[in-house]
Amino acid sequence: MKRKIYDSLLAWKADSDRKPLILEGARQVGKTYILMEFGKCEYDNLIYINCQNNSFMQNLFTMDFDMERILRDISAYAGQGIVPGKTLIFFDEAQDAPRCVEALKYFCEDAREQHVVVAGSLLGLLTHQNVSYPVGKVNTLQLYPMSFEEFLWAKSEDILCGVLDEMDWRSIMPFDNKLQDLLRQYYYVGGMPEVVRSYVTDKDVLKVRQIQNEILKNYNNDFSKHAGDETQRIRMVWKSLPSQLVKENKKFIYGAVKKGARAKDFEKAVQWLVDAGLVYKVSRCKSPSIPLPVYEDESAFKLFMLDVGLLGAMSGVPARLMLINSDVFMAAKGAFTENYVLQQLLGVGDLYIYYFSKDNSTQEIDFLVQSGERVVPVEVKAEENVKSKSLRVFVCDDHKEKNLKAVRLSMKGYVDQEWMENVPLYATASFFKKIKHNSSI
Fold first, then answer.
1. Is residue 105 within 8 Å of 111, Cβ to Cβ?
2. Which residue, of 34, 65, 370, 424, has the fewest CB within 10 Å?
3. Spatial distance between the Cα atoms of 242 and 138, rounded to a whole number of angstroms
4. Helical ranges in 157-293 per DSSP H
């Protein structure tokens, strides 16, 4: 299936100053698939080595990091010659051979001409002692679950994607009903590649939910495999996510995990899930001022799941409500909608994403997004019936001197109200790609 990250892989290959590449991302987001496709399509030969239960990989780096010996051994193991620029060496499941990642430092320093990529659970690597991460010696890319745009590609809606990217609202609006229906499908299916492939091929919504539940079960097994003493606390945080997200105020509350709990009880568990890529942490920002990271309040944050489809599976939402009944966009107080929006923003890349809440007030702005020199207050509405009193006060009164222009994402059509633009939810990624492009010129 077509993935946007492919262009970034091509740019890495073409970069004369490239370093070994680590493709990061949660388990089962498609790292192995896209790197295999990249190797097969862009190189004369691909050497693929799965490190899992592989005695060769367990021993390859134990003696030393002599690149001449290592490359000779890899070539002999694979039965292929290694030609710089024409051979891609791909180490998969690298957490099962921890010194493999450490060796990337020496690939960078002593064999820079070689094209080397690595995928695997970096959390698995963190559990190993005496293993050094090659800081400054690798390039990294982040792979997320499939975006709505990639979902449309998988559904063979390439032309519709092109219409969205043009950002011509007169051309988009005739497709409004179709795009809303496709968005409902995405809310249910989500962006895990195995789930999307099954849905596109078989169109079996029950099988979709079965695969999603299997993925959730695999994640739960990972907790005990890699988390050690934190396992039970991680499971408690993970299990609390749906109920945390349906609250009117979606700020993460430790006491909702366990009555009377405090930060010190569960902050390690939260960080573990963030590092694993299983949750996204959006911190509070105290002021809509550039640069936003300077005004971050790390003590207050929201936690979102890595995929809106998995959120639905974990919440037990029936397929009928997601796919047929449009009330899904009002259900659970927008939990699915905010999770969806964040996924699309992360997929755009190079955006600073926070949320805003006012001390001693109920005023809250769902997201504050910085792209270049522009700060965009974002309000998320799950339906067409929209009111934006807090957003208007925030932009037109509280921070009038900053000349902010807000974005409201809803199921309503595009409207420009000078102080705010209403953008259809299905156009979230395309609209922010436009903002990002305009911010960079």
1. no
2. 65
3. 36
4. 158-166, 169-172, 176-189, 193-202, 205-226, 231-245, 263-275
